[in-house]
Amino acid sequence: xxxxxxxxxxxxxxxxxxxxxxxxxxxxxxxxxxxxxxxxxxxxxxxxxxxxxxxxxxxxxxxxxxxxxxxxxxxxxxxxxxxxxxxxxxxxxxxxxxxxxxxxxxxxxxxxxxxxxxxxxxxxxxxxxxxxxxxxxxxxxxxxxxxxxxxxxxxxxxxxxxxxxxxxxxxxxxxxxxxxxxxxxxxxxxxxxxxxxxxxxxxxxxxxxxxxxxxxxxxxxxxxxxxxxxxxxxxxxxxxxxxxxxxxxxxxxxxxxxxxxxxxxxxxxxxxxxxxxxxxxxxxxxxxxxxxxxxxxxxxxxxxxxxxxxxxxxxxxxxxxxxxxxxxxxxxxxxxxxxxxxxxxxxxxxxxxxxxxxxxxxxxxxxxxx
Length: 370
Ligand SMILES: Cc1ncc(C[n+]2csc(CCOP(=O)(O)OP(=O)(O)O)c2C)c(N)n1
Hints:
By secondary structure, the chain is of the alpha/beta class. The chain has one domain (about 5-305): 3-Layer(aba) Sandwich (Rossmann fold). The chain is built from eleven helices and seven strands. Strands 1-2-3-7-6 form a five-stranded parallel β-sheet, with helices on both faces. Strands 4-5 form a two-stranded antiparallel sheet. Strand 6 (about 200-205), helix 8 (about 210-225) and strand 7 (about 230-235) form a beta-alpha-beta unit. Helix 1 crosses helix 2, helix 1 runs antiparallel to helix 10 (about 265-275) and helix 5 (about 120-130) runs parallel beside helix 6. It starts with a helix and ends in a 66-residue tail after the last helix. Residues about 320-345 and about 345-370 have low confidence and may be disordered. The structure holds thiamine diphosphate. Thiamine diphosphate binds near residues 114, 144, 146 and 150.
């Protein structure tokens, strides 16, 4: 992949922004201002940002709990992220949910799902819908090493391959599934070998080297876009903090953690950019100032945002009457979501499309009676 200086600096900015948003979130968490748990992905930035940078407008991601970088790289708003963390009434879930389940259908970001592995069949459903609509849409579905041992992971890979769906599966192998190290999870060296069983290309790559991630994922994307079906990339990285901020991760040997801290993806990319004379002190200072300004703005926007209105607590519990689309598309009209505020512009927006010719229709019923 040929990248211009500006693209490389944008990648560096996004990696730093991801780290900075998470660092600030941790501070807010320690101050007791975050509602719910905080799951950071320090060490994953090359994987999550790098993989997302191979996508183009209209593509869709189905992220998991370590994918803030992917979210921001796809245009997700730091303001919306902070509103979600602080459970404000104008957050993407209107203050109804914890930190994890943030999505943004405007930018093709499907909210993440807590049940490990379950997002992969969802990604396949999104890809199948888009294929049926004859859209040229690629779906990216990341998951952790632990998730690869769930049934839905295997069902998802198999289904995507049989249906030749344009899905790129990214395994973020970060050494542990909570406290379980990889050697107690599976007996193979490379999780990318699992691709072969489902008839798709798979490769593994140093997940802390953003350029290597970009190149490997670019190959997978090219394959998936060509109509030949899905592809898989395993990015080997490490979770240098606990599973959540409530976890001290005492089960991780100190030397192992230090070894991976030395391989920090941001420092490595920074060293590369300096060596190529792409990054100098002036450019670094500018990027640092921009990152700080964006994070400060996001936090103050969230702090000034209203708490959820208690009177609306029962809204959205039941599906609305009439046909709905399962996939949101910008510009769509759907009165159900006019309460949602675009946290970048402060204006209401719609998150679900009503595309009459191709929309999946179903009779809305009360969710509890299904
Ligand atoms: C089906 C299911 N089982 C267990 C859990 C509890 N749980 C949440 S995250 C996690 C570990 C996830 O490990 P991995 O997939 O490797 O992702 P990582 O957190 O390391 O990024 C577990 C066991 C869950 N959410 N869903």
